[in-house]
């Protein structure tokens, strides 16, 4: 038995109490002995090679891009995306380009590409650079990047939506043909609706998260934004699928999204009344007009349908904020679920909590406080509400092919209207519930009201992203008539 200091024993006892364990004095010494044995394989220190970025800050009028290549990066001139230029949200690793997560206090230059970036390049895409984002993807409006607010190309006095603000604005402005964003509670769909583009939240776990900075592991996913459904579907097909580097990615294979674009057959839609009723008159009128036009087609029918929301609106902030608080405690790496287990990653995230702004703190603290005060009961209650809501959706999918709902409850807000404590449900109240259930959802432009874009969600059954794509193409067709 090795000799252990009283400081070592006290430190282990503190940990023991924090874990709710009871251990004798002999057990403490035995545990320290075992820790010494295990620790023999752990280096006392590690040298991390810090690389310089090969990119430079982009000169972009909308502040949509951060670092960009002098010339787009192309790995092959053949492939299904050889005619597509792309940008990647700055919470996704791109080899030799800075990753800041929208924070000036956080920076790493990865030595590898995220799996989704590898797949884009393998498909022939031209990679332009990194897209701006609300800091650590924790903002629904695009106002909370430390590199400056992103301008909405279609409405300069309105927010671009977040957190994938740069991705949506770059697509909307025509700077790129498509972009990758991330969606935890609407962060692809919200900016898509605000900027008048298409945004896809795929089935949860249907693609790799290797090389992606997590926010809430039960809802996080990567998805494409594009000017039209066809381009979004092509990108979706290129990046999805399992990955051995991300054991949480699903091996369930679904139909090709691009094959679904021209597929024949009737579709039945349920227009979800509670989400329409909670929306403003202008948003509801625009969405209902599209639903009526869809219902007039011979190959589609739309039925206004009620469903029980239960406590799903409360479950959304409780879930993502509690999970992010857990992430903070673990300094950015989710043990057992994360994929970036390198010393470079660990060292960068060592000061993770020091990089967070007050907007993030005010969104995280209430749920984290409840989690601690109730000994986890608040999180359990949220997950039970998700189970009930998922059961409601399952019942609807037994009757209908697809579900419809407005993306936002209001028109794109003005800058400063939405804060961490005010107005959050207006912008994420219709998107968050479907993040919690993991269903594939596409936000597609439904038209305009008062000169501002309105988005409409098409919700599909799990792993039936292709059906949602097909429904979105029908909406495009009736909208453009």
TrEMBL record:
Record bears the keyword Transferase: yes
Pfam families xref list: Amidase
Molecular function GO terms recorded: transferase activity
UniProt KW keywords: Transferase
Keyword Transferase annotated: yes
Region (Disordered): 39-62
Residue span(s) of domain Amidase: 66-467
InterPro entries per record: Amidase, Amidase_CS, Amidase_dom, AS_sf
Protein's recorded name: Aspartyl-tRNA(Asn)/glutamyl-tRNA(Gln) amidotransferase subunit A
Taxonomic source organism: Haladaptatus litoreus
